[in-house]
pin-likes 3 (Rosa hybrid cultivar), 405 residues
Amino acid sequence: MELWTLFVTASVPVLESFLITALGSYLALDRVNLLGPDCRKYLNTIVFYVNTPALIAANLAETITYDSLVKLWFMPVNILLTFIVGSIFGWILMKLTRTPPHLRGLVLGCCAAGNLGNLLLIIIPAVCEESGSPFGDADTCDTTGTTYASLSMAIGAIYLWTYVYNIVRISSKMSIQDSPQTTDSSSTSSHISYTEPLLSIEDNVDQCEPPRNVSEGDAKMTCLGKTKEWMVMVNEKLNLKTVFSPSTIAVIIGFAVGIISPIRNLLIGDDAPLVVIDDTTSLLGDAAIPLLTLIIGGNLVKGLRVGGIQKSILIGIIIVKYVAAPLTGILIVKGAVKFGFVSNDPLYLFVLLLQFAVPPAMNLGTITQLFGQGESECSVIMLWTYIFASLSLTFWCAFFLWLVA
């Protein structure tokens, strides 16, 4: 492909995403107030529980088979590597910039967790529809590419809410403990749920030993109760309810429908008896991408209204996300191809490479709000990283297209 064709093919989907994001920012302005905080909250809830799971489930059910699972096994590994690489670079950045304690979890999270769902769901189908795309038939590319992006979104969410969530939680707890003690009961009570010590298995090991003068049956019930209590504590500490989000459940349903032939024959295909369910699910899922992009644009407005952040930290995050991580990703994906871990499918390789080049995950804003640490700084980071993403993604998309073609 010619250089200009590659650039146009890569820039069009990024420009489409940027224009919809700009529209969302405009609608969120005070003088317009069509996408205010309350509206974004309710709209985001609908998208989170309805549209996004519908999009994921429909695309996975239509394209996933037992044979395709063999092909996709490396994607969870690749996404895990994006978190590991980002964490390493984030740790180096914290040491170089001497990041304040209350921002360390945020900085590490921004470097580790990328937007592995929303942007991929926008960029990949748009690239497939371009005339200069190296991925063959547009319809097949669109369906397969959306499947890759949907799976990426679900896996990324699992890693985000297990790893980054607890990183920010621990950072928040440590910063509160290091801060001067205050006698204001209201200020301490707002963080009391996050200043508890980390869960220790050893603390519960000996609790199953029966106390004296207690029958064996009562001792078993006591042990069972303690075990149940410990499991509840684990659930609260690891936020398992958030890990098994609607998107994750949609992945499980999509895999089940795609792999189990009797269910697939009932739902998938023009002649399927219950094809109306699949069509309805797909119709709901089609609304997810534009609504998600509008919400992103509306959320970025907050970054214009709050104070700044240490410039070295902001510049460092941009360098990590848009220079260091993509270059490392090229080495990892090329190495995986060389050693036979990944097939030489251009679209699949393009998705794996793009996972290293996306901006920070928008859900980091939600996580910082949960702990009341770094909310304003997170808004500023999101604003500037997404502004630079319009240029960075265009360059990396064009380069990745050339690399896989």
Observations:
- The radius of gyration is 23 Å.
